[in-house]
Amino acid sequence: MTLPWDGTKLTLVGITMLDTELTIYKGNICTPLTDECNDFIWGNFINESVVDGLHEFWHSQDILNFHDGMVLRQGDVTVDKDYKDSTDLHVPTELSCAPVRNYLDALQDVLNQYLKRFPMAETSRFQVKEPLSMQWYPKGGGFKLWHTERSNALPGSVYRHLVFMTYLNDVPDGGTEWYHQDKYVPAQKGYTVIWPADWTHHHRGRVSHTKEKAIITGWFSYI
Known about the structure:
Layout: E1 23-25, E2 28-30, E3 42-45, H1 48-60, E4 66-68, E5 71-73, E6 76-78, E7 84-85, E8 87-91, H2 98-117, E9 126-128, E10 132-137, E11 142-143, E12 160-167, E13 171-178, E14 183-187, E15 191-196, E16 203-205, E17 213-222
Antiparallel strand pairs: 1-2, 3-15, 4-8, 5-6, 7-11, 8-10, 9-17, 10-17, 12-15, 12-17, 13-14, 13-16
Helix pairs in contact: 1-2
C-alpha cells in the first residue's frame, strides 16, 4: 500500500471501520474489541478447592523432582536467578491424580469462556501438550525480565498458541505485568488468566518483597 505524502505528515486515505455485520465463528458471535477487554488478556476465577488440592499436591507428592527455575539464555537452558528465581515442579498432564485432573477440568472451563469471548482464537485444534509448571517464588524472587512464550523455533515452543496461568495465593504487589498492553494483573488466589503466546504479549512477574508467590502455568499448543 502506497500512502500519499503531503510534505509534512502521512495521511491515510480510504481507511474506514468495518461494516456492522453479524459474524459467527464456530457457533459463537464475534464482536470487535471493547474497552473492557481490548488486549486478549482475559481470565476468571476457578474454585478455591481446586487450588487447595494443588497446594496439597505440591507439599505431599514424592514422585516428581523439584528443581531451580531455568531460562533460555543465549541458546542455553540455564539457572539464572537474576532472570528467574523460583523452585519449579513439572507435572505431566497424564498423571492420574485428582488434583491434576480437577485443575485441568477447571482450566478447560476458563478456556471455554475465553473462546466464547474470542472465537477466532480457535483457528485450529490445540491442547495442553507440555507438562504443567508449578512454580514457587520466594520473597524477592520472580520471573524478573520481560519475556514471551514463543520466541524461537525450538520444538517445545514453536507450536505454542495460548498461555495460561493460575495464581495459587494472594500477592497484591506480586502479580504480572504486560509491556505493550501497559497492564497489571494482581495475583489473586484462583484467578486464571489466558493470553496469546507471541511477541505482542511480552510480560514479566512483578517482584514482591513482602510475600512468597505460587503459580501453575503452561501452554495450549497446536496439534
